Task: inverse folding
């Protein structure tokens, strides 16, 4: 049995998207970031970082959303996992790139412009995050101009990992990056993505 630790209102949403793509049943521990449950010795034994998402897949424990999705797609022999070595490497490349260049940035931007109560927002943090996100989007745009998908001829776990992290960018004006905008919409129009988005937005 697969257990996904983490609420759909967290980076666990990415893993739920992958589970929906693979049609995998799972138990969800619907915990928000920093919820008391993530601080217990039992959870810290699973993930000493105390972070979500974490999965327990029949006793195999794994954290880091990008790694989890790569693992699940490969384990279930999904077409989302590139069979070609170079496309596999590209899926890894874009997943790691996302974690480095876009992940925290897009979260910080949205939190400090709209999500947090006004008194807690830090405009300078939002500006720094946006500046970095712009640089990342400027990298993504020409890559998607060259190739419809990030890791091979079809939608793959590479696209899912980057598009899922850009969930918050769905609410941002991306007109300056038309390829990113079209690609992002196509990714989020997938039935599995719509399913998980509906759970989050209900
Ligand atoms: N790189 C990690 C980041 C995980 C992460 O930071 N998760 C947040 C929730 S979205 C969290 O658990 N925050 C709690 C904390 O920072 O203590 C991943 O992609 O899984």
Result:
């Amino acid at each position: 049995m697969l257990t996904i630790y983490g609420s759909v209102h967290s980076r666990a949403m990415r893993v739920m998207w992958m589970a929906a793509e693979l049609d995998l049943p799972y138990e969800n521990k619907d915990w928000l970031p920093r919820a008391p449950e993530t601080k217990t010795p039992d959870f810290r034994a699973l993930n000493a970082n105390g972070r979500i998402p974490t999965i327990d897949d029949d006793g195999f424990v794994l954290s880091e959303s990008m790694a989890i999705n790569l693992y699940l797609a490969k384990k279930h022999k999904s077409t989302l996992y590139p069979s070609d070595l170079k496309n596999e490497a590209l899926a890894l490349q874009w997943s790691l790139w996302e974690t480095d260049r876009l992940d925290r940035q897009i979260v910080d931007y949205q939190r400090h412009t709209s999500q947090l109560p006004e008194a807690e927002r830090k405009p300078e943090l939002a500006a720094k995050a946006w500046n970095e996100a712009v640089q990342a989007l400027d990298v993504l745009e020409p890559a998607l101009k060259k190739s419809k998908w990030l890791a091979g001829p079809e939608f793959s776990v590479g696209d899912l990992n980057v598009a899922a992290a850009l969930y918050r960018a769905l609410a941002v004006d991306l007109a300056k990056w038309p390829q990113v905008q079209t690609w992002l919409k196509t990714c989020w129009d997938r039935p599995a993505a719509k399913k998980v988005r509906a759970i989050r937005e209900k």
